[in-house]
Amino acid sequence: MGGLDEHLNPAERHEREALAAAFREVFSLPSGKRVLFWMLEQCAIYREAFAGEAVSATHYTLGLQGAGRKLIAMLDEVDQRFYPSLLLEIATIKAIDREVATNMRSEDDDVDA
């Protein structure tokens, strides 16, 4: 995790390494990637923050985005390739979800017939 660890004491360094290992383990799983992408969506990372005249709404969204950026920064600390690969993989996960939904609708139509 690089230069940020230089100022940490051994206990803090151990905690940081344990957290990085947990990130790698959880987010290497398809279900972990799905949850992570959902979390980032909840942080409004993929939305425009500006809400026109509603300044408080803009500030609220900016706060959400700050939390999302902090999560992405941690992912980058753990592995700089992780977030870009997540973006590629989430497209595949969404395509699978659409296919499953289509198949379920087809099965429902068959039962109703």
Give an overview in words.
- This protein is an all-alpha fold.
- The protein is built from four helices and no strands.
- It has helices spanning 10-27, 30-42, 55-78, 82-112.
- Helix 2 packs antiparallel against helix 3 (55-78).
- It is flat.
How would you characterize the largest beta sheet?
A: none
What is the approximate shape?
Answer: flat
Helix content: over 70%
Q: Sketch the topology as an H/E string, one letter per element.
A: HHHH
Beta strand %: under 5%
Regarding quaternary structure, what we see is: single chain
The DSSP helix count reads 4
Distance between the termini: 58 Å
Structural class: mainly alpha
Give the mean pLDDT: 89
Please mark out the parts with pLDDT under 50 across 5 or more consecutive residues, or reply none: none
Query: Rounded to an integer, what's the Rg over CA atoms?
Result: 19 Å
Could you tell me the number of beta strands?
0
